[in-house]
Amino acid sequence: MIDETLALTFRALRKWVRNPASIVPGLFTAIFYLLLFGSSFNPANLIPSGSGQGSSVLQTVFGGAPTYITYLAPAVICIILVFNMAFGGIDLVLDRQLGYLNSLLTAPVPRAAIYLSGVAQNLVKVLILGMLTFVVALLIPNGLKLPGSFGVVNFVGIFLAFILLGLGLSFIFTALALTVRSIDSLVAIVNFLTLPVMFMSNAFFPISSFPSWLRAIANVNPVTKANEAARLLVINGSLSSSQAATYGWDMAYLLVFAVLLGVLGSLAARRALRPE
Amino acid sequence: MTDIIQADGLTKVYRGKVKAVDHISFHVAEGEIFGFLGPNGAGKTTTIKMLNTLASITEGRATVAGHDVAKDPGAVRKSIGVVPQELTADDELSGTENMMLMARLHQVKGATAKARISTLLRLVDLDEAAGRKVKTYSGGMRRRLQLIMGLLHEPKVLFLDEPTLGLDVQTRSKMWHYIKGLNKERGLTVFMTTHYLDEADSLCDRIAIIDHGTIKVSGTPAELKEAHGGDIITLTLTDDKEDLTGFLSAIDGVKAVTRDGKVYRIKLPKTEKALPAIVAGVVQKEAEIEEITFSKPTLDQVFLDVVGRSMRDEGAAGSDSGWENIKMERAR
Question: Who among B14, B77, B92 is closest to A108 (CB)?
Answer without folding.
Answer: B77
